[in-house]
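Final paragraph of the annual report: two paired records, presented back to back.
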Amino acid sequence: MDKILVDTNIVLDLLAKREEFLTEAQEIFTLSDKKKVKLHVSSLTFANTHYILSQSYKSDNSRKILRKFKVLVEVLPMDDKIIDLSLASDFKDFEDAIQYYTAIENDLDLILTRNLKDFKLSKIPVLTAKDYMQL
């Protein structure tokens, strides 16, 4: 069973119902619901997703959405080591560095994102949801 870190953009595709990317996100999270993959998100993803959802929904509704979503993923901690690695990395985007080192430190198999170019330095596979579903 693949152990996958799901980047914030794919989480938001699902929860904010971003029409252009919704179907692919639904397929990924359906795999988790059916116990065919193990999906993980960083704790940073949860915080960022709540913030973005609360721009469109009341805070209580954002939390309700996240409570339902949480059954599909394991939330991974962000610790000193991940922050230190991210700060010292060559990643241009600090948030992407945190996502990457969260995956590395938790021995995950791959990262799913829509921003492949942001993970050029990755030593583990990085795929879009669409590409993963085609495998």
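The closing record of the year follows.
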Amino acid sequence: MKIPITKTVFDGCEKESIVKPLETGWVVQGPNVAKFQEMFSEFIGVKYAHATTSCTTALHLGLEALGIGRGDKVIVPSFTYIASANAVEYTGAEVVFCDIDLRTFNIDENKLEELIRKDKTIKAIMPVNLFGLCANLPTIMKIAKKYNLKVIEDSACGFDAWIKDKHSGTFGDIGCFSFHPRKPICTGEGGMLITDNEEISKKVSQLKDHGASKSDLDRHKEKSGSLLPNFTMRGYNYRMTDFQGALGICQMKKAKYIMDGRRKIAKKYYEALKRFSNFLIPPYVPEDYKHGYQSYVCLFTSGENLSNLTKEKIDKINIKRNIFMEKLEEKSIATRQGTHAVHTLGYYKNKYNLKDEDFLMSYVADRLSIALPLYTEMNDEEFDYVIKNIKECLEEIK
């Protein structure tokens, strides 16, 4: 039996819909993208949605639309995918890393204010709603308001993640989502930028389309469409294709089915992993939060107490975690580390002269996190096979 880390949910809808752009000849950004944007904004509960080539380009567009540039600084959690920090660097601004709360894997809001007080050139905060769990966005927004900072949510993993009745991505000025195959909603590559701010929306619409004053679809619908539009700003080509828009429409139609299935598997993991609680700490969900389970990420402790951690102790447990993952791989069960501590990666480590232990909780998460297989249509046989081998592999490395 072979168990992947995840599987997309594609069926006849996607097969049929992806052919239609070929038949109509409209293969670039067009009616399918427009419909996908409409469906996405309605699901999220936001006024404006702009489809892009990826979440990374959505983040870049958002930062530019907020006026972030050279001489500015943006706070980013040090445990996130590298794209979060890269998007900041694209603008010429600098990254200021903040450590995380190890329970949630999200930015530690208690450390934010200290960073902001120290540096008046900080202009924005980029909280990441990691693995499908919202950061403490109500508190982050209070801090941002106090210091007049912009907030752009990296909600790449945050589809169908909520705090009470408010969806991830809707707390800040801008929210950005990913439709990569590791995400619940998939268009191959692709992203979405959302906002309730009309001015930001208009600016993003131009920026993603070379700076054009109107889109190809708008020109197609009106008279004098043969004339090129005006270009009032320098822009980018970050437009989603209509093939991807067609996939997105189908995915949104079965969003409830996809998410119900993921949550069902997550619930089974919580129950099954109780017997391994000394070795694997399951994802934490605060009260009034609804987890989207883009990934089911545990902390591997190998039976060790994670209080009073040192780099040496973390590295020792990391060796066992890696062996555990290798043993599962030998059983054809895919796992992943949750993501990486960006401050430990060569480019950022060297540019900002950082040490691994500078953001210790992020280092712990990098070295000890493990994502278990989770997908909507995971059947009982597959799930039981994973749990059986988790038990056997843990016994082998005790």
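The chain has a mean pLDDT of 95. This concludes the annual technical report; the extension proposal builds directly on these records.
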